[in-house]
Amino acid sequence: MGNSLFKLTSLNLNGIRSATSKGVESWIATTRPDCICVQEVKAQAADIASRFEVLAGLKGHFHFAQKKGYSGVGIYTRHEPSEVVVGYNSPEFDAEGRYVELRFDTPSRKMSIVSAYFPSGSSGEERQQAKFRFLAEFYPHLLQLKAQREFILCGDVNIAHQNIDLKNWRSNQKNSGFLPEERAWMTKLLDTSGEGGGLVDVYRQLQPATTDTAYTWWSNRGQAYANNVGWRLDYHLATPAMAALARTESIYKGEKFSDHAPITVEYEFAL
Description:
The protein is α+β, with helices and mostly antiparallel strands.
C-alpha cells in the first residue's frame, strides 16, 4: 500500500456542458484527482462522445438517464477498473441514471468506487414520494454491497443529516432534504452499533463539528451563495475499513463550476 494518497473528488456538475464552460476541466487538471465522481451530467451518450469521454486525462464511465437533459452520473478515473457496473437493478430508478460503480478488484481485495445521485424531492410531493421509494430500495443495496466488498460512495445525497449541516435548520424542518424521515434514514445508514448500515460519513469523521465551512450546495435564489446560506448535500460514504484510511478533506470554493462545490478526500491507499 505504501504512503501514497488516493485523491477522490465528488462534484455535482449541474450539467457537464455548463461546468466545463466554467473551467472545471482545467481545475481537474490542476488538482489531479485519481478519480472524480460526477452527478447531474445532464447529457446522453451522443453528447459525451468525442467531447467528454476524457477530462484532463481521466477516462469517464457513465450511467445516463433516458430523459434528455436530466440526471446522469459518471466517474472519471486515472486507473482502469476491473469491472463497470451501471445501475443497481432498480426497475424505477435505473432509467434515471443515478448509479455507476467502478470495481478495482485484485486477487486479495474487492473494492469499489460509486458515484450516486439521490433524487431531489423539492419539486413537489410526487418527487418526494419517489425519493422515499429510492431510499427504501437503496438501503438494502448498500448493505448487500458492504457484505461483499469495501467501497466508497461519492455523491449528491440530497439530504442534510444534522442541524450543523445547513444554515437555516430551524426553518427547513418541513422541507425536502431536511425532513425527519430523510434524516432518520441517514442516521440508520451511519449506525455502527450492528443495528444499522454501519457506513461512515467520511467528512464528519474528519470534521465532526464544522458548520459554515461544511456546505456544498447553495440555492440560486437571493444571495444564498454570497451569504453562505448553504447545505451539506454531497458526501463520501464509506465502509469502515476505507473510512479509516481517510486523511484530508477539502471543499473547494475558489471558483464556481456549479451550484455545488467539489468535495475532495485523500485516502491512504493505492489502486
